[in-house]
Design a protein that fits this description.
Elements lengths: L12 H5 L8 E2 L2 E2 L1 E2 L10 H14 L9 H21 L7 E4 L2 H13 L8 E5 L8 H10 L2 E5 L9 H7 L4 E7 L11 H9 L5 E4 L11 H4 L3 E5 L10 E5 L1 H6 L10 E4 L4 E3 L13 H17 L1 H20 L4 E3 L9 E6 L4 H10 L2 E2 L1 E3 L4 H7 L4 E5 L6 H18 L1
Parallel strand pairs: 3-15, 5-6, 5-7, 7-8, 8-9
Antiparallel strand pairs: 1-2, 4-10, 9-10, 11-12, 13-14, 14-17, 16-17
């Protein structure tokens, strides 16, 4: 297991930035300031090199061939599963299922865990700050089974209202599914407290870790979640790959989600015998390069250390909050006391899409829109927000560039 740095050791951000070739380019005549990390993160050269090496020298299918290239690819693929298990603190590697990303992971749990057992009147408890990917799969499951989706509300800061959550967690609840960190607000949910409350009633919990795995230390055993999902592309890895952690006993009891390829042990026209976990849930030729590339990304952030990453990004959050709150007419959407390095805001004088367009002309990349969280926008009475989201390769100077760009927006629209 790659050891993480001591939390007292600070990141060498100038050196880190050299690892990311995308950050060295210019956009519209300006040095790129990339502040859209909650959507997808840039890739370090080591991940790019890993993908190039696989396709150049190791390209072969896995778990099937006896030739050299197949063995090399299989070893790298299996090693990546071990890395991710250690990264998440899983008890064993077979608890890690490779999927396309968090979205597919939630769909897998909904259909494989929920659909066979949920009945009319059963309840699926989520929060009002969820990404669409943690809403729609449960709505589909509710339509299929007669269960219903129950929403735990949030307050004006974007924090879960605990008393209201407790009221909705009860005997009818069959699963709780919630974001560890809100992509639209930056709110960090008290997942351990939530899991303890749910487990006291025998209710399993799925944690959407798309925004947490890249930014804070995660240990699924300490958290005691039943399922945990994350996406590789937000963790400085390839697109189209992610992982679902599930407790082995749950995964073993769940039927396959898809069929074909590696998920079978034996096939006759009369009967198919399914493979053991994790292969039971990995039908067909997997995203081999993506898995190996994700392993390289996990190695990279582990070398930096999640504690050091979280500490530095919190400094960026504090600096950015101070700078932006001084801008007249700017209002933050999401002011939770426990918050990740995400600043969502609106301006009185300009639509978020106009903010994003003008900032782009200044070389500053942010996200503008509903962030696949339309219910959050409705809760705060806005059509959209502008969102700046930080990573460990961002700097205070880049936040200053963001501020200058916002002032330019104000000049144009006032």
């Amino acid at each position: 297991m790659t050891m993480q740095r001591d939390t007292k050791e600070r990141l060498d951000v100038a050196k880190i930035r050299l690892d990311f070739p995308a950050l060295a380019q210019e956009v519209h005549g300006h040095a790129l300031v990339y502040l859209d990390n909650a959507a997808t993160a840039q890739k370090p050269q080591c991940v790019i090199d890993t993908l190039n090496r696989y396709y150049s020298l190791e390209n072969a299918n896995i778990h099937r061939g006896i030739h050299y290239l197949s063995q090399q690819a299989t070893d790298a693929y299996d090693e990546a599963r071990e890395k991710i298990a250690r990264f998440l603190g899983a008890r064993e590697a077979r608890e890690i299922i490779f999927v396309r990303g968090t979205t597919e992971a939630v769909n897998l749990v909904a259909q494989s865990y929920g659909r066979p057992s949920f009945r009319p009147g059963d309840e699926i408890l989520i929060t009002a700050m969820e990404h669409h990917s943690n809403i729609v799969p449960w709505q589909m499951l509710a339509e299929q089974t007669g269960a219903r989706v129950v929403i735990a509300p949030i307050d004006d800061r974007g924090e879960l209202i605990w008393s209201e959550f407790e009221k909705r967690l009860g005997k009818k609840t069959k699963i709780v599914s919630l974001a560890h960190i809100s992509n639209a607000l930056g709110t960090i949910n008290p997942v351990t407290k939530i899991i303890q409350a749910a487990h006291a009633l025998g209710v399993p919990v799925l944690v959407d870790g798309a925004q947490s795995a890249p930014h804070i230390r995660v240990n699924v055993q300490e958290m005691d979640c039943d399922f945990f999902a994350f996406s590789g592309h937000k963790l400085y890895g390839p697109t189209g790959i992610g992982a679902l952690y599930g407790k082995a006993a749950l995964l073993e009891a769940m039927p396959p989600y898809q069929s074909g390829g590696d998920m079978i042990s034996a096939v006759t026209f009369e009967k198919t015998v399914y493979n053991k976990i994790p292969f039971k849930f990995e039908a067909g030729t997997p995203h081999i390069a993506g898995v190996i590339g994700l392993g390289a990304a996990v190695d990279y952030v582990s070398r930096l250390g999640l504690e050091a990453i979280a500490q530095y990004e919190h400094e960026l959050l504090e600096y950015g909050t101070k700078k932006l709150e001084a801008i007249d007419g700017l209002r933050f959407i999401g002011t939770a006391r426990e918050k990740s390095a995400i600043l969502s805001f609106v301006l009185a004088s300009a639509h978020p899409h106009d903010i994003g367009t003008i900032l782009d002309q200044e070389g500053v990349a942010i996200r503008a829109g509903h962030h696949c969280a339309m219910p959050v926008m409705e809760r705060f009475g806005v059509p959209a927000t502008a969102r700046a989201s930080f990573a460990f390769y961002n700097t205070k100077e880049e936040i200053d560039a963001l501020v200058r760009g916002i002032y330019k927006v104000k000049e144009i629209f006032q």
